[in-house]
Amino acid sequence: MQNxxxxxxxxxxxxxxxxxxxxxxxxxxxxxxxxxxxRGLFPKDFLFWDGSGYQWLYLYEDGMSVLKELELIDFQxxxxxVATDIDQKTDMELMKKEVDAFLSLNGFERDPSRPDLGNIxxxxxxxxxxxxxxxxYYAPIKARE
Length: 145
Hints:
Blueprint: E1 4-9, E2 12-16, H1 25-35, E3 45-49, E4 54-59, E5 71-75, E6 78-86, H2 92-105, E7 108-110, E8 117-120, H3 124-130, E9 134-143
Antiparallel strand pairs: 1-6, 2-4, 2-5, 3-4, 6-9, 7-9, 8-9
């Protein structure tokens, strides 16, 4: 069984919280706005560390109402290696080794020009039953040169 999958994310528009820390106004505004969006079948929100704070992104769709406090940005897509584990309990070194082994066997390498992304995939109802959340970790990759 493979524990890593490849996701090909298109270039797109994303609504961004801007950079900040949890508990700060911009992330709180974004979280409230995002929570008002209809939950879909596939994830639409992604979190990443930009070097000075977290940025939370949400896939923009035509006609979507976006608060003036939030930014609309161009998102550079591409290939991502995606691994799943328990949020905040992941052995990051072990996961990195597993992803790197998969990439090596399948003609890919990491792409340092784009940030790693994260997405909580557990619904609130599933979290009540399981007692924890699962997270998808997205590592940007490209064809091996």
